[in-house]
Amino acid sequence: MADTLFTLRDALKSKAAVQLLAADGSPTTTYSQFAQISIPVADGDALVVSKSEPSRFRKAADQGPYQIGAVFAAWLLRDSGAAEYLRSNRELGYPANLAVSVGDRKALVDWLEGRIAHHDRIEGAAGRSICRVARLEC
Questions:
Q1: Of 35, 91, 94, 47, whose CA–CA distance to 70 is shortest?
Q2: DSSP code of residue 101
Q3: Where are the domains of the chain?
Q4: pTM for this structure?
Q5: 12-63 residue pLDDT tens
Q6: CA 61 from centre of chain
Q7: 3-class secondary structure, 31
Q8: Helix H segments across the chain?
Q9: Which of 129, 122, 135 is nearest to 68 (CA)?
């Protein structure tokens, strides 16, 4: 199975149309109905995941992983000012303690869009940066 965070990164780098889905799987543009993410994959199919699925992007101070929906929200709201970003995250179901912090957003978006090759808080299964361990460009 493909890693959700890297699949999302590949889709965003290629400018593929990642969609918000309601709980019934239908596309939605209403933040309050957002329950799943549909991420296009190379074979023309889509990876559909719950917005609450843990990602490999870790919060600061070892507070655990961000949910994949919070990661996508950081990208979706990348051009919003801080107040709008926090308000929109609440509408998406991510209060300040679950949303990607305003301070973390820029570097995460840069990594998702491929402008930077490495981010220290992208974790592997063993809890260490897979970038550092495997010397990958992440």
A1: 94
A2: P
A3: 4-134
A4: 0.85
A5: 999 999 999 999 999 999 888 999 999 999 778 899 999 999 999 998 877 7
A6: 19
A7: helix
A8: 4-13, 68-76, 82-91, 102-112, 130-134
A9: 122
